[in-house]
Amino acid sequence: MKVVHLVRQFSPGIGGLEDAVINLVLRQRDRLGYNSRVVTLNGIFTQPGARLPPTEHINGIPVRRISWSGSSRYPLAPAVLAQLSGADLVHVHAVDFFFDWLALTRPWHGKPLVATTHGGFFHSGFAAGLKKVWFRTVTRASCRAYDAIVAASHADARMFATIAPGNLVTVENGVDIGKFADAAAYQPTRHVVYFGRFAQHKRIDLLVRLLSELRRLDPSWRLTVAGARSDHSGEDIERMAAASGQAGAVSVLVNPSIAELRGLIGQASFFASASEHEGFGLATVEALAAGLIPVLSDIPSFSAFLSEAGCGVMLRPSALSAAAFTMEGLAGSGPNEIQALRRRCIAASARYGWEGAADRYASVYRGVLRAGGRWMGPDHHAASQIAAASAPLSSKEVH
Description:
Glycosyl transferase; Glyco_trans_1; alpha/beta; 39% helix; Glyco_trans_4-like_N; 14 strands; eight-stranded mixed beta sheet; transferase; six-stranded parallel beta sheet; Rossmann fold
């Protein structure tokens, strides 16, 4: 099968979207024998002015990069249509210009279309009112042109069910759970890590405030923030820490390598994210696979992770002191208790391996192509796989 994946950002860019696409394409090639290639933009949004080569092979994946204009929030690249030749199916990742343009031009390109939601476009409060109107009008209309809209999480499924009930299926994001497998500290530590983009909606400022509460209980607590700049730079985070009086207890690691991140995780017992919105929460699953105890904001996808893991701490802006008290109690527990929590977290991550996700995507593709380019549902075996991945999870709090 020849599949073209369209995504606005790809390696060497760093982020959950880039990670999801490269892992899916690699499994399609190595596990399923697909002839998959990637079409993306020729720039990295966090490196304004830099331009990447038009063609490249990344981990053996053919990558074609095209020029674009406009805002990084909605980059315009109409030339993408010239890159679809020979494709049996086009898979669009995220809800952006590519999503709308491929829908609008389907009468001309005529390709079967699958799209993955990857959280939609509600990651921040920017232009919130306009986004809601756009979602109910333009996005709703675009969804009708797709043979399958794949929700990358149960939260996305609830969101898109209001505008695409007839062609929606849930295939939760796969995660490379081997990347940091069993890497967390074996002895309890008072070290909290966050890794991911330095985006405004991730609320890193709340993690700094949480650290202040933790250090009231024990001054040895520390926080490391690792990842790639986005709305915030590393210097911005350092200023947050200084303003709260925590400069000496907060470390910032910008663009760390996988080896550096693994070494950092080996010094920690906790992973914290105060994010206001997550389409899925890839970094959280990687943290669970490492054996880190999750400390997560009260949003649907995170509530599901806490419920599934059976351990962790719910983080609310109005109750940071309560979260800190619970974390201090866990940090003060013995090695046997920490080992039991580590095993529970690692076990909870197992269902998110990419092999299963790639197989579920294959069933969606087969359903689309079997129906001649119109989604009619998967075959019986595939239906059981998708149903298993889509089973509702309890959102009860677990401390």
